[in-house]
């Protein structure tokens, strides 16, 4: 009964309206509205019983997993399920994972119908290719959910999904005063973890256009976000604060030397319209300064508004998922991927 009440509550809450005067952060806002409603009404997931109880130490993975276990999307009737969830500990070895998939193949009829294409699993770091046939089918056919960013080679763009990072906000994201103002003191702000790219970071520290600090006090941290035009992120560095930066109107700049295909919700959000990817290995801080100063004020304002509008979809709610938040956007991406090719049933040894 509680699950039915939660679903009805979600259906009654309004979806966001898109202002004609503001840039849309969505690839297709109209499609999102219609498909999201359909997902809430119909989506069903069957969860296999894990071999042993476990928890995810990674915060986004833990929040997603626990929210899924309490969600109204679950069904105990496999025949009505759109997708099947394969739970296993992030510490599971390749041999144990192969044994788990072999057991699903032998003990249940569902894996063999699609060779795992209507199954999904949660692996914070992602899994690599394997010579074992069972793990290879899981890797190539099933939907992988990982935490952004993912090691290159562990993520398949056309099917896999990433979870937005989680960072407890020093102040509520709803208390974001001054969002209409674009007056800033710094061109770029970097909250450095003290590890990644120290030579490059030292260049930023020596340039008055950039602000670099570590884990500053909450009020100083928020002030830094508000006073900076762009927020700098080192790919595979500390990206946990990206959602807060976007909510406060600080446009993310990801420093990376290759295209990124694992941004969260790439099927939904226009990341190209609200973020910049730059390679500055040659030219350093001076090169980055030239690139950021080349962004027109009109383009910057549009990117900033798109960031603030989309940030609500990247927020994890610790107590209980809310409509259109990070958990529901992950579920929405699963819903979009629920169609699977039905292979002829075969017998396996």
Summarize this structure as a short list of keywords or feature phrases.
single chain; 349 residues; alpha/beta; Rossmann fold; 2 domains; five-stranded parallel β-sheet; 12 helices; 10 strands; 35% helix; disordered N terminus; disordered C terminus; signal; transmembrane; signal-anchor; golgi apparatus
Summarize the structure.
The protein has 349 residues and is of the alpha/beta class. 35% of the residues lie in helices and 13% in strands. The longest helix has 14 residues, at 29-42.
Describe the structure.
This is Probable glycosyltransferase At5g25310. GO terms for molecular function: glycosyltransferase activity. InterPro entries: Exostosin, Exostosin_GT47. Belongs to the glycosyltransferase 47 family. Keywords: Glycosyltransferase, Golgi apparatus, Signal, Signal-anchor, Transferase, Transmembrane. The protein is an alpha/beta fold. The protein has two domains: 160 residues, no CATH class; 127 residues, Rossmann fold (3-Layer(aba) Sandwich). The strands form two sheets. Strands 1-2-3-4-5 form a five-stranded parallel sheet, sandwiched between helices. A five-stranded parallel sheet has the order 7-6-8-9-10, sandwiched between helices. Helix 4 packs across helix 6. The N terminus and C terminus are likely disordered.
